[in-house]
Amino acid sequence: MNNLVNILYIIAFSMFILGLSGLTGPKTAVRGNWIAAAGMGIAVIATLIEIRDTYAINWILIVAGLAIGVILGVPPAKRTKMTAMPQLVALFNGVGGGTVALIAWTEFIETAGFSEFKHGEEPTIHIVIGSLFAAIIGSVSFWGSLIAFLKLQELLNKNVEKAFVKNAKIFQVANIVLLLVALAACVFIGINATPGEGSSQWWIVLVLIAAGIMGLFVVLPIGGADMPVVISLLNALTGLSAAAAGLALNNTAMIVAGMIVGASGSILTNLMATAMNRSIPAIVFGSFGGGGGAAAAGPAGEQGTVKATSAADAAIQMAYASQVIVVPGYGLAVAQAQHAVKDMASILEEKGVEVKYAIHPVAGRMPGHMNVLLAEADVEYDAMKEMDDINGEFSRTDVTLVIGANDVTNPAARNDPSSPIHGMPILNVDQSRSVIVLKRGMASGYAGIDNPLFTAPGTSMLFGDAKKSVGLVIEELKAL
After folding, report:
1. C-alpha span between 381 and 371 (Å, rounded)
2. pLDDT band at 302 (very low <50, low <70, confident <90, very high)
3. pLDDT (tens digit, 9 = 90+) per residue, 398-439?
4. Quick one: how far is CA 292 from the chain centroid?
5. How far apart (Å, rounded) are the C-alpha atoms in residues 301 and 445?
6. 10, 20, 51, 58: most buried by Cβ count inside 10 Å?
7. How many angstroms separate the most distant Cα atoms in the chain?
8. Which residues are catalytic?
9. Cβ neighbours of residue 387 closer than 8 Å, sequence gap 6 or more
10. In what residue span(s) does the NADP transhydrogenase beta-like domain sit (predicted)?
């Protein structure tokens, strides 16, 4: 039976890795998800086989838990729009971290403070440290992910958000104190984790509470522009906490799956931080931006006056261009304009215009947000160009169409040393011969920073809902 369990685990791990490799492209992402999900199913079956002769399994509770998970998990996943997918990812990730924290708490209770181990086992350091690490990181991940969800869903009071951002230094000090409290409680638990000497369960409760408040205080002061990186970081932390819990429970599936999630999440977090020219500590301890809904910029800026355009003028500019670059942003996602953009691009291509899509690594509110949206509209993957590949094209581009993107096109990041986002790599759309920006109004982006691109001499603004605006452009293109 042990051989069967090991074989099933090996199959599951192989499917995890194969599924993860499928996520490298939109064409294989769905298949990759199914493969990984099937692998997780096999891992669950293997775990049940492994423990059935060791524990008195309450199958009713297991079935009930599975049913509740399906009922709570499947409907939101099926009904959630792509615009709200980052919130769903943050929430699901938080549930994973919270589960790990509860596992650590349960293990503490069942073993009387890690002093009475099952089957007469002596308490080992990997069990104690693994459980305590899982308790801290899992609790941080749960509460931090919950705040990330509330921020992305814009359910937090804006004044509260601004107060946290303004007083970020105070909360950084508080986090250090909370971390020291949690570690001190862990040390006390570890010292008392000897056979026959149980610790009060309030010590583990202290660890969970201190770590939970720390999770709140870590994410609350972080500005909106950094939230994609934060989501990725919290995902990595959840994976590491699951691996630590797997060490404590001696569960191979949790160890391997947790390390895969932790490693891939850490790599992604680092890549995204690099794309913003910011270190991870700088993001956690020195964020910028207070979230969406910042004060709107006026119609006139220091560098010029906003020039409004019409769908007819935009259509004429693009129809007689040699190359058009589309820059998608969160505004495209909100308007669900990806299909209309694809239709517009098809018409332009029929007229001999080359159309490309410029994707910034942190466009939208989660990694790969824009790629998924465009792939949903059957945009060819080869037409989606990463920032480093497309930036050299803007100076040779006749028209760049910016749809709802703001911070990732802000030239202040390149030209203004006083700007909070100075040094962040951007899409150099301002180097195009002409720029058309589709926006509802003149509000600043998620980072809460005004964009001088909107008042630049070569920029014109097409105001309105992105989907409707693109639809009007399509009608004008057909009439040409």
Report:
1. 8
2. very low
3. 999 999 888 889 998 888 888 877 888 899 999 999 999 999
4. 16
5. 16
6. 20
7. 86
8. 407
9. 275, 358, 359, 360, 361, 425, 426, 427
10. 6-474
Tokens of 193: 């984790």
User: Could you report the per-residue pLDDT of 117-148, keeping only the tens digit for each?
Assistant: 554 455 566 778 888 999 999 999 999 999 98
